[in-house]
Design goal:
Rossmann fold, 32% helix, 10 helices, 6-stranded parallel sheet, alpha/beta
Length: 306
């Protein structure tokens, strides 16, 4: 996959199949768009995804909503989709004021866009005036193929980043995973913590999530962990570790079952499967250790029954 931040540097040798969006979460609805791109790739097209360096909504309405996936996580997911080009344009004032018609003409000319796929609620161009109806008109005038897809639904509600974000905020990671089509995850570098877990026989790996990453509520979760392409099972605490740490700093701390390797400075992917309990302050470390052993047994039971 080739990554670009400007259309002028892309020199496609083939006609291009394209989709556009923020793709926060790259959920099951987005996967329908990717399926269409794969079909076109098999038919001889190059495939491209165009997104933006920041949310259009954030820019226009100063909405500071956090993201289901970080930019780096989004890149990794599109790399797995085997997209030829990932284009992350700066959402500049010039781009913001580009008319819908001129925007599509730009893509047709500079990117060799000859196939476009979008959801039925897709809007684009200045003030979001471009919609599916305009795309149909432009495809007829300019001669590119067009697919407009209906929204995928769960329990009569559109599957969307908003829906998924709501469930993550509730700690309902099981439903969020179903809507995403994969397990919600945090990816990042393993850093040093206070090493208390190791002293009580429960070693952990620690990660500091990106500031713009949406996290579920503080608490303990059943998780699976991927390091160096190997998968492990464990439990993860999101929170401030009130029993052993008085700093109030938020951390993601994971106890991997039967794991004693030194993995500092490596990267881990921690996927969330089930909420176990809220984060709690205990009287002492002995009580905390006893509760962790209860959490571990519950998590092992979960893995034994899936």
């Amino acid at each position: 996959m080739e990554y670009y931040t400007d259309l002028i540097y892309i020199k496609p040798k083939k006609k291009v199949a394209l989709t556009i969006g923020k793709f926060d979460g790259l959920h099951r609805g987005h996967e329908l768009l990717c399926e269409k791109l794969r079909e076109k790739k098999a038919a001889g097209f190059d495939t491209a995804v165009l997104t933006f360096d920041r949310s259009i909504r954030d820019t226009l309405y100063k909405d500071e909503e956090k993201n289901i996936i970080s930019k780096d996580e989004r890149k990794a997911l599109f790399r797995k989709e085997k997209v030829d080009y990932l284009i992350e344009l700066p959402f500049s004032e010039k781009l913001m004021k580009t008319s819908p018609e001129d925007f599509i003409r730009l893509l047709y000319k500079e990117l060799k866009m000859r196939y476009f796929v979008a959801g039925s609620d897709f809007h684009f161009g200045y003030k979001g005036k471009g919609d599916a109806a305009l795309l149909k008109d432009l495809s007829g005038m300019m001669g590119f193929e067009l697919d407009i897809l209906d929204k995928l639904k769960k329990d009569e509600r559109d599957i969307s980043s908003t829906y998924i974000r709501e469930e993550i905020k509730k700690g309902n990671v099981s439903l969020a995973d179903e809507l995403l089509g994969y397990s919600y995850f945090i990816w990042g570098e393993i850093v040093h913590g206070n090493h208390i877990g190791r002293t009580i026989g429960i070693p952990t790996i620690n990660m500091i999530p990106p500031k713009d990453k949406l996290l579920p509520p503080n608490g303990v979760y059943v998780t699976k962990i991927e390091i160096d392409t190997r998968e492990y099972h464990g439990i993860t605490n999101i929170g401030v570790k009130p029993t052993v740490d008085g700093t109030g700093n938020l951390t993601v701390e994971t106890h991997i079952f039967d794991f004693k390797e030194d993995v500092y400075e490596k990267h881990a992917k921690v996927s969330f499967l089930k909420f176990l309990r809220p984060e709690t302050k205990y009287k002492n470390i002995t009580e905390l250790k006893a509760q962790i052993m209860v959490d571990e047994r519950e998590a092992l039971s979960y893995f034994n029954h899936i």
